């Protein structure tokens, strides 16, 4: 059974009619009271009949005007609501390019605009999801093709069944494992499901540890790593393991993208009541057209180079999400190709 009073059209028409009825009743009562006070009893009947006639005409006119305006109003509102309902059904069915017409009235325009913004956000999420599947498949293909190649070589007897071949295969398997691990962290960190153990600690300790961990690669690349102001304690409130993970990515990238003989400077300081770690290198730099995208998943400014060095292009995405989760941020700057890069990590200050 349809409850017609629940429908917006009948509610608006009912409201208009109620106004007409209340107006007519109030007018009749006031007119009657006035007539009884001002008109002589012999003229009362004639004047009352004239007033009733005038009130009837006014009531009919008001009813017609009320009905017409409510019908027009209802049509405008219902058209917008129906269009939004239709569009949301199409979006639910996977048509993410769906948008609604934006009406002229302020309130309906605001609703239509919010709806279109939501549709656009959903479309972008869908595009990113599709791109993510493509990227994951692409990233998995490279090490898998490598392993397949080694196996075929072994089966055909082209490659010797020697430790070197197996070491090369192991290298590809490790790459695969790193990628899968990174993807798992990425999905957790993006869903906000990463567990963090907040403590207050000296960030310079972590910097020293990470630099020591990267020492073999630093020596391999004949690089110099300078830690400025690392001898005074600088307290931060965050998860020390996650901070180490971020710094390993930032300093590791600096080592990876700085040619032999280059220099990497790690500077820590308290700026505007926040702990700041700046990782500056004299490496290959980042072209301005790539700079805005380097924190996006799988984005590589130079795909051949970073893939060759084992990079999957999601290290910075994870690092930035981790920094956000700890109330901080990471920003990147480069004056251009060949002009080095600067990454700045900010974290909340810690107090004893
Ligand atoms: P990858 O594992 O490929 O290094 P990241 O997410 O850590 O992935 O970095 C994304 C991209 O940003 C890299 O592929 C590289 O093009 C660029 N990049 C990051 N750090 C530096 C740096 N210090 N110097 C130059 N380019 C960098």
UniProtKB/TrEMBL annotation:
Catalytic function, reaction form: ATP + protein L-histidine = ADP + protein N-phospho-L-histidine
Domain Histidine kinase as annotated: residue spans: 135-351
Gene Ontology terms: cellular component: membrane
InterPro entries (alphabetical): HAMP_dom (IPR003660), HATPase_C_sf (IPR036890), HATPase_dom (IPR003594), His_kinase_dom (IPR005467), HisK_dim/P_dom (IPR003661), HisK_dim/P_sf (IPR036097), Sensor_HK_Regulatory (IPR050736), Sig_transdc_His_kin-like_C (IPR004358)
GO MF assignments: phosphorelay sensor kinase activity
Pfam families: HAMP (PF00672), HATPase_c (PF02518), HisKA (PF00512)
Keyword Transmembrane helix: yes
Enzyme class: transferase
Transmembrane segments: 12-35, 55-78
HAMP domain: residues covered: 75-127
EC nos: 2.7.13.3
Main location: membrane
Compartment annotation: Membrane
Keyword Membrane belongs to the record: yes
Superkingdom of origin organism: Bacteria
Keywords: Kinase, Membrane, Phosphoprotein, Transferase, Transmembrane, Transmembrane helix, Two-component regulatory system
Protein name in UniProt: histidine kinase
């Amino acid at each position: 059974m349809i409850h017609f009073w629940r429908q917006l059209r009948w509610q608006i028409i009912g409201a208009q009619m109620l106004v007409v009825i209340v107006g007519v009743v109030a007018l009749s009562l006031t007119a009657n009271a006035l007539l009884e006070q001002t008109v002589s009893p012999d003229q009362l009947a004639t004047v009352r009949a004239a007033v009733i006639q005038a009130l009837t005409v006014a009531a009919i006119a008001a009813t017609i005007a009320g009905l017409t305006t409510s019908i027009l109003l209802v049509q405008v509102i219902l058209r917008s609501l129906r269009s939004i309902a239709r569009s949301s059904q199409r979006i639910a069915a996977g048509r993410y390019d769906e948008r609604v017409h934006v009406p002229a009235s302020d309130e309906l325009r605001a609703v239509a605009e919010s709806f279109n913004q939501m549709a656009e956000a959903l479309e972008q999420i869908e595009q990113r999801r599709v791109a993510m599947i493509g990227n994951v498949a692409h990233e998995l293909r490279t090490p898998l093709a490598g392993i397949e190649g080694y196996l075929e070589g072994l089966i055909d007897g082209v490659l010797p069944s020697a430790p070197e071949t197996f070491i090369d295969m192991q290298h590809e398997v490790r790459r695969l494992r790193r990628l899968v691990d990174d993807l798992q962290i990425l999905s957790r960190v993006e869903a906000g499901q990463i567990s963090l153990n907040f403590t207050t600690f000296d960030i310079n300790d972590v910097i020293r540890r990470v630099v020591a961990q990267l020492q073999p690669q630093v020596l391999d690349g004949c690089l110099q790593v300078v830690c400025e102001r690392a001898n005074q304690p600088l307290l931060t409130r965050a998860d020390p393991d996650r901070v180490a993970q971020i710094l390993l990515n930032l300093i590791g990238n600096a080592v990876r993208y700085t040619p032999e003989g280059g220099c990497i400077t790690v500077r820590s300081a308290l700026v505007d009541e926040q702990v700041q770690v700046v990782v500056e290198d004299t490496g290959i730099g980042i072209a301005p057209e790539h700079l805005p995208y380097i924190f996006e998943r799988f984005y590589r400014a130079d795909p051949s180079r970073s893939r060759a060095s084992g990079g999957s292009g999601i290290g910075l995405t994870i690092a930035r999400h981790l920094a956000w989760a700890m109330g901080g941020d990471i920003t990147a700057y480069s004056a251009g190709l060949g002009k080095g890069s600067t990454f700045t990590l900010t974290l909340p200050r810690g107090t004893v």
